[in-house]
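Many introductory courses stop at the sequence. We go one step further.
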Amino acid sequence: MKKITVLLVIACLLTVFSCKEEKTAKSPSQMQQVMAVHDEVMPKMSKLGQLVGKLKPIADSLGMDSPQGKAMRDLQDANKSMMDWMQGIGKRFDADEIMKGKALTEEKQNWLDKEEEKVNAVKEEINSSIANAEALLNAAN
């Protein structure tokens, strides 16, 4: 009888632990992946503003057609792209769909596919505009 009880306890523990592993091993949803890209680049938004502030006096003295002027506009465009993307996703999806994984309709799933492409493009735009601006500022020093 003791052996059966011990075996049942072990079986129950194995079942509990295997269920937990299955949950934690679950891959993130597409919405979670999209929001992870957003969360990765959102902290860089303040960097965009700082770089614009550093480039503006140089662009003002050299002209807006200078590489510094173009870099400043690229930073501003990247900022606008992020703001537009956030506004757009907020209009298309409700908080439960974004934050809680609420199931999406087929139409919204198609939208999410497009939003994933957009947020990846925004990420590239932000990262490249920052890299270009930093390179120009470092070359000037």
